[in-house]
UniProtKB/TrEMBL annotation, chains A, B:
PANTHER family: CROSSOVER JUNCTION ENDODEOXYRIBONUCLEASE RUVC. This is Crossover junction endodeoxyribonuclease RuvC. Its EC number is 3.1.21.10. One of its GO terms (biological process) is DNA repair. Belongs to the RuvC family. Homodimer which binds Holliday junction (HJ) DNA. The HJ becomes 2-fold symmetrical on binding to RuvC with unstacked arms; it has a different conformation from HJ DNA in complex with RuvA. In the full resolvosome a probable DNA-RuvA(4)-RuvB(12)-RuvC(2) complex forms which resolves the HJ.
């Protein structure tokens, strides 16, 4: 599976493409940063992010786009920009029918380092090792985008199993309800 | 001037078009709500908002899009959705080269009711009176979108004067700096 990871941000939006399946060595196909100028109007910056993401989707045709789930407990100004950039990334993917998955920062850190509280350096070091790169990708936003893609590929089988279990449970409940309704009628 | 006001939201995104200039009676050209289903994926919802906003821009060709400035002090979940919907509205406008203006909720309330702390009913009543409507637009998001457009039209002359003053001040400073630099060199 080929995943485009997006670490959303208005000034630096990290992007990274990883291909592979859980349990096998993963391959990095590309990594970079979409930048917009802090002194440009917000609308112009969002158009810049849109163009950048479109280019990455055009170039790598990912099967899925994994975006960092934004929380509001951090710095107020940063969070607004992050939410807006992530909206543009999700919009670009959904418009083309490409599925979007969201992962929290701690899910991503836990997936690649084993700890949900790992620092940037640790994430960078593990991304370098997992993808067999010669040096950690710079800036940190680029490494985080790759970590998101890796996290998605590794978590996907577990998530699929969970979804199947939930679906099966719903089906069993529906069958049970139907059976008891039939029983009620035939009494 | 023709302004499209957008009260951003994922479930209900208020839209309203007002035409006129400060000091003259204003006219409402259209009002409505772009809705998306709460149980749809976030990406699908953003695509729905994009389509809705595009339709309103196509239909009314506004010269400017006024969007509510989002703050993070409110409910965490709501704010994320609001920030994401506002990003899509700003993107749609900027992509077509239509200028975007942001106004805070208290600026909008103060502009139409005289108080930055007015409630929804008061805003609805004043929008009804200002635009000479037979009844307050429903839901409140639609009325808020019209209030945003009115606020922009009424504040625009003051904002233009302010921007001109700031620009003139910068120019004078630049001239003064240049003069003192020349004086320094010729000493």
């Amino acid at each position: 599976m080929r995943v485009l990871g997006v670490d959303p941000g208005l000034t630096r939006c990290g992007v990274g493409v990883v291909e592979g399946v859980a349990g096998r060595p993963l391959t990095m196909l590309g990594v970079g940063v979409v930048r917009t100028a802090a002194d440009d109007d917000i609308g112009v910056r969002l158009v810049g992010i849109e163009r950048g993401i479109e280019e990455w989707i055009d170039r790598f045709s990912p099967e899925l786009v994994a975006v960092e789930r934004v929380f509001s407990q951090h710095n107020v100004r940063t969070v607004m920009g992050t939410a807006q950039a992530s909206a543009v990334a999700m919009l670009c993917a959904s418009r083309r029918g490409i599925p979007v998955a969201l992962h929290t920062p701690s899910e991503v850190k836990a997936a690649v380092t084993g700890s949900g509280r790992a620092d940037k350096a640790q994430v960078g070091a593990m991304v370098t090792r997992i993808l067999r790169l010669s040096a950690p990708p710079k800036p940190a936003d680029a490494a985080d985008a790759l970590a998101l893609a890796i996290c998605h590929i590794w978590r996907a089988p577990a998530q699929n199993r969970l979804q199947q279990a939930v679906a099966q449970n719903r089906l069993q409940q529906a069958v049970a309800q139907h059976a008891s309704a039939v029983k009620g009628r035939t009494r």
